[in-house]
Amino acid sequence: MSGGHNIPVPRAGELKWRLTLLKRSVRPNGAGEAIETFEPLQEVWSKVMPWVGRDYYGAAQEQNELQTIFLIRFRRDIDSKDRVRYQGEDFNIIEVAELGYRQALELLCLKAPH
Question: Are 113 and 17 in contact (CB under 8 A)?
């Protein structure tokens, strides 16, 4: 985990939105192929903020996706392989940054493709 992006540790009253943390797992299917799934880990309170100004180039094509920052209380069991479900939409976690010393996490996310 790296340091936060100049975002202060959220106060308890700022964590107003519920989201579900989804833990990635890979299991073989009947044909022996690895299948990636995301299982609900826990519902947590969060602060939700837009992550503005991020364009990137993928497959020689410029893409601009829905980008969001979720701030949650510190925990050790979330990393950039996992996802967040917020208001019925799944978001891939791109980066996890610690805010303060084990006070909060900043989850930089992109909306997952359907």
Answer: no
> Whose CA is closest to 104, among 22, 47, 39?
47
The CATH number given to whatever domain includes residue 80 is 2.40.10.270
Q: Could you give the CA distance from residue 110 to residue 95 in angstroms, rounded to a whole number?
A: 10
pLDDT at 68 over 90: yes
* Segments forming the whole domain that contains residue 42: 2-111
- The three-state secondary structure class of 29 is coil
Find all residues with CB under 8 Å of 77, minimum gap 6, and list them.
23, 41
β-pairing, 89-99 with 2-3? parallel
d(CA 34, CA 27): 5
Taking the whole predicted model, whether its pTM rises above 0.70 is answered as yes
Give the residue from 37, 48, 113 showing the smallest Cα distance to 87.
48
